[in-house]
Design goal:
Length: about 400
């Protein structure tokens, strides 16, 4: 009989979101008419920017004509899109990133997992805690970890806490790491990294010959012009970092699918023989072999994000969500809660009151305010005592949720 990848057996059975669903179902069974406000999801709620829709409609039309039809495109993405991204997102911000260092894909979720294909199995890995679960689970699936302990921490991974106590600045690894996952602006804590903070990581990576996997899916939500949007704004990052970006959150492409990964040509890793190998060449090879590119229509839609109309529409979308985040922050602060994030990211990270556990606070909000959040502990042991509220919702629903929370007794 065929053997399965037994590393999958080590995964903790998709605990967080099923458990949330279970509790919602139990509550709804008792209160069938309850109108729940869901601030737990990490999906956008506003429609696509008009510029993207128009570009995609035109692309669909073209595909139905003899001259405008497109078959397989380049595995790395169309040059016109790579060029546009390189100019707008990098060169105009003073980063030396070239079009051929940009690899278009159908999502950062798959890229952050697939990148392990080109990396060895014996790297020492560091992740933050709390963390975007994809980074951890993809390493479990690849057999890079031991089993999880009773707090859900996998053996062999180094967890770097992100908490109010360290002002959401992850400590540098206590024991040397070869591979470091960073996500700023951060999901779930909403924390953002300053230039100095990222410089500290780049310096660490260069002195330890480590690779940083930098997830910048939320860069568009940064409000302060002094904060870096890309790790390549940091001196030396071209020698130690890969960056992941997505059109999912800025342009609402969660259901359209287009993202990109930046792999500098200067980046190298070590082979088993101790030689240096180009990560660009390996990723190019990996994509050419295992990936056939993103649809032409989606790439035309992504290109339209950079048109002047597209830029204005994306700015309106992100400010709409950031106004939601500001409302959530303000209301919770007025209630005396300690509130983090939500200033450069669409997530507000709330300290639970009276040292309540994450799940206890989740239940309290569900039962008394009929508001659904995400328990912080679901993102890692250090998330215990926090809850994530998402700003991805309509203004009306956010205001309803906040008015209800204000009316319930949280102490
Ligand atoms: C939403 C999100 C992404 C984007 O994933 P896609 O697959 O591009 O939709 C990447 N990283 C984090 C941390 C996210 O929350």
């Amino acid at each position: 009989m065929v053997r399965v990848n037994s590393h999958y057996q080590m995964l903790q059975a998709g605990y967080l979101f099923p458990e949330i669903q279970r509790r919602i179902k139990a509550f709804s069974a008792q209160h069938p008419d309850a109108d729940l406000v869901r601030l737990g999801i990490g999906d956008v709620t506003e429609p696509l920017p008009a510029a993207c829709c128009q570009a995609m409609a035109a692309a669909v039309e073209a595909m139905g004509t003899g001259t405008g039809f497109h078959g397989y495109g380049p595995e790395q993405g169309y040059h016109w899109l790579r060029q546009t991204i390189a100019r707008h997102d990098y060169q105009q911000r003073g980063c030396a990133v070239e079009a051929d260092e940009i690899f278009i894909s159908d999502g950062s979720k798959c890229d952050t997992s697939n990148i392990l294909d080109i990396l060895g199995d014996d790297n020492r890995i560091a992740v933050t805690d709390p963390v975007y679960p994809v980074y951890v689970d993809s390493n479990v699936m690849a057999g890079h970890t031991g089993p999880a302990d009773d707090q859900g921490r996998y053996g062999g991974l180094q967890y770097l806490p992100l908490t109010a106590d360290n002002h959401f600045r992850a400590p540098l690894p206590a024991t040397p790491a070869d591979l470091i996952y960073l996500c700023f602006p951060n999901n779930p804590t909403g924390a953002v990294a300053t230039r100095a903070e990222l410089q500290r990581w780049v310096d660490y990576a260069r002195s330890h010959e480590a690779l940083i996997l930098f997830d910048a899916a939320y860069e568009a939500f940064i409000q302060d012009p002094d904060l870096p949007h890309s790790i390549f704004e940091i001196e030396g990052a071209r020698d130690c970092a890969i960056e992941f970006r997505s059109f999912s959150k800025n342009a609402g492409f969660t259901g359209t699918r287009c993202a990109f990964t930046v792999v500098p040509r200067s980046l190298t890793g070590r082979t088993g023989d101790g030689d240096e190998a180009s990560l660009w060449q390996l990723w190019n090879r990996r994509q050419s072999t295992k990936f056939n590119g993103v649809g032409y229509v989606a790439q035309r839609g992504a290109e339209a994000v950079y048109s002047s109309a597209g830029q204005a529409q994306v700015a309106r979308l992100t400010s709409f969500y950031m106004e939601n985040a500001a409302i959530i922050r303000q209301q919770l602060q007025d209630l005396g809660l300690a509130v983090y994030g939500g200033q450069h990211a669409p997530y507000v990270w709330v300290r639970t009151p009276e040292s309540m556990g994450s799940w206890q606070f989740f239940d309290r909000l569900l039962q008394e305010a009929r508001v659904v959040g995400t328990p912080g502990v679901g993102f890692g042991a250090a998330g215990e005592g926090y809850l994530r509220l998402s700003a991805f919702n309509s203004r009306d629903r956010v205001e309803t949720a906040m008015a209800r929370i204000a009316r319930c007794s949280l102490q």
